[in-house]
Write a structure and sequence with these properties.
By secondary structure, this protein is α/β, with parallel strands linked by helices. It is about 30% helix and about 25% strand. This is N-acetylmuramoyl-L-alanine amidase.
Length: about 400
């Protein structure tokens, strides 16, 4: 019996198959509608003050972008995704002569870059994109600052570290399925944490933790949070909650504050082994013995024995914590997430003291750094960071299972 279909039927079926969507054309800079304007600031230029600058970039369509200040020499760098500058001259930009030089062109696959050399130290006071008619416009406003207030990224290479990936991240695998992760959004309640630019650390990390929980649960991970609203939870209780949940990993989330220019970029903290003895003694004094080690009743044991048993537990958990930190920093580096100059550090933070649960504290960035704060409030950046964390946790979980298999044999 023949299964061949009539030609007319085949042609009809082919017409029902949707044509592939055409690739989106690269955005174009509309030079005639763009400008660089300079305004007097302070007492005016004649008094030694550089002008306030505003760069407006009119585009044929809205695109993801990023604006940063780098030093040595001082430059404004604006990175734009899928934007074509071919055939355009910087001399045609109105106000181009207000600064020493302007350059633009293709930068890396999928991205173009505008470099504006500045006449002195500046800071970005605002950066925004209007996406509606008559055409999308990116507006970056800069104001001059004193030398001691100048806090740029150290180089264009440092600016590259935060450049968003040119394509979406691949879907995460389900290697973390069956894992239990406790997320600990820092601060809360009467303790808002660091504050800057109208934002509080407590609110930022709580929102991020909820986004991360959703992504992890979609991969089959059991997620518990030490707080789900603006409430205060004692540091010791956070560890107890993780232990009660049977956590395989405890991750504390923060966005701290340091004096301007001292720190920027993500940082991962793990327990500092040099502080083990002191921490063990403090835990033995301040906690119920049954709360120190899962499955081990230390009630009635003396402080010396409790300390020895906790140190013994850390010989297993400490390398696992450090291994997670390495997984996370490698994923962040691969995906262009900006890292602190020393991305993995040791610390004696209370939430890292648990001897029986691999633990890490992630500073997503420093809220006092304008660039980091812009990232923390940017949904696209947070989504990328969430995906990176899911990948890191999945990779770490896979490595943990492999390690356990080898130990059993």
């Amino acid at each position: 019996m023949s299964l061949a279909l009539p030609r007319w039927l085949l042609l009809s079926l082919l017409l029902l198959i949707p044509a592939p969507a055409p690739a989106q054309e690269a955005a174009r800079l509309l030079v005639g509608a763009s400008s660089l304007t300079a305004e007097e600031s302070g007492w005016g230029w004649g008094w030694g003050r550089e002008p306030t600058l505003e760069l407006e970039l009119a585009l044929s369509r809205a695109v993801p972008y990023r604006a940063v200040i780098v030093g040595d020499p001082v430059r404004l760098i604006v990175d734009l995704k899928e934007t074509d500058f071919s055939g355009l001259r910087t001399e045609d930009l109105f106000g181009h002569d207000a600064v020493p030089a302007i350059r633009w062109g293709a930068f890396r696959q999928g991205w173009s870059r505008i470099v504006v050399e500045l006449p002195g130290p500046y800071r970005i006071t605002s950066a925004s994109q209007r996406t509606k008619a008559p055409q999308p416009v990116i507006r970056v406003r800069l104001e001059p600052v004193a030398e001691d207030e100048f806090a740029p990224l150290p180089s264009a290479t440092a600016a590259l570290r935060n450049l968003p990936a040119p394509a979406d991240l691949p879907p995460p695998t389900a290697d973390a399925e069956g894992l239990t992760v406790v997320l600990d959004p820092g601060h809360g309640g009467f303790d808002p944490g660091a504050q800057a630019g109208g934002e509080t650390e407590a609110d930022l990390v709580l929102g991020f933790a909820k986004e991360l929980r959703t992504a992890l649960e979609a991969q089959g991970v059991t997620v518990r949070m030490t707080r789900e609203d603006d409430s205060f939870v004692r540091l010791e209780k956070r560890m107890t909650m993780a232990r009660d949940a049977g956590a395989d990993l405890f991750l504390s989330l923060h966005a701290d504050a340091l004096p301007s220019g001292q720190a920027a970029g993500a940082t991962i903290f793990v327990w500092n082994p040099k502080a083990n003895g002191k921490a063990a003694r403090q835990l033995a004094t301040r906690h119920d013995r049954s709360d120190l080690l899962s499955g081990i009743d230390l009630t009635g044991k003396d402080d010396g024995l409790a300390s020895v048993m906790m140190d013994f537990a850390r010989t297993d958990t400490q390398p696992r914590s450090e291994n997670f930190a390495r997984f996370l920093t490698s994923r962040m580096a691969l995906q262009g997430i900006g890292l602190h100059d020393r991305p993995i550090q040791g610390a004696a933070f209370s939430v890292l003291k648990s001897p029986d649960i691999p633990s890490a504290l992630l500073e997503l960035g420093f809220i006092t750094d304008e660039h980091d704060r812009a990232n923390l409030t940017d949904p696209q950046w947070r989504a990328r960071m969430v995906r990176v964390l899911v990948e890191a946790i999945s990779g770490w979980a896979r490595d943990e299972r492999f390690r356990e298999t080898n130990l059993r044999h």
